[in-house]
Amino acid sequence: MGKNFGLGKFFLYLFIVTQALYMIAQLAMLVDGMSREFLSDTAKKYLPNGLTKKDKNGLPIHGYWLTTLLCSFIMFSSATLPNINSIFNQLLNLNGIIDPFTTSFIFWAFIKIREDEKKYHAEYVYIKNRRML
User: Is residue 28 part of a domain?
Assistant: First the structure.
């Protein structure tokens, strides 16, 4: 279609914009998820009260500001790169670092909580079989 109709560059730029938006959104979601976990109920012991403030739905208000600041810092630091390929590679590198770290941290926390179930009481148990641990 690119050669016949002359739309090759259009689709290339459309893909670049779509992929960049996808990576930025994924980065924001990963940072948001981590900030929600970071600012959970147990964080009140260790963090300032202003940072753990929640709205009527239980969402961390200032956690979103923290997420916005972190994502803005990452995006503005990417703006200092010379061209779009460098920005794309920077987002790809960040995504490659953050995604496995997040997944492994959540898995590690899940295993630690499962090892000491009596200390961390939960109303809902995801895996009830103790042999799976």
Answer: yes
Question: H/E/C letters for each residue in 47-105?
Answer: CCCCCCCECCCCCEHHHHHHHHHHHHHHHHHHCCCCCHHHHHHHHHHHHHHHHHHHHHH
At residue 21, the pLDDT reads 94
Are the beta carbons of 71 and 25 closer than 8 angstroms? no
Q: pLDDT (tens digit, 9 = 90+) per residue, 47-100? A: 777 777 878 877 777 777 877 787 788 778 777 777 777 777 877 887 777 778
Domains held by the chain: number = 1
- Domain presence at residue 3: no
Give the burial string for 39-52 (b: 16+ CB within 10 Å, else e): beeeeeeeeeeebb
Domain that holds residue 39: 18-108
Residue 15 has pLDDT above 90, yes or no: yes
Q: Is residue 12 part of a domain?
A: no
Element containing residue 29 per DSSP (H, E) = helix 8-38
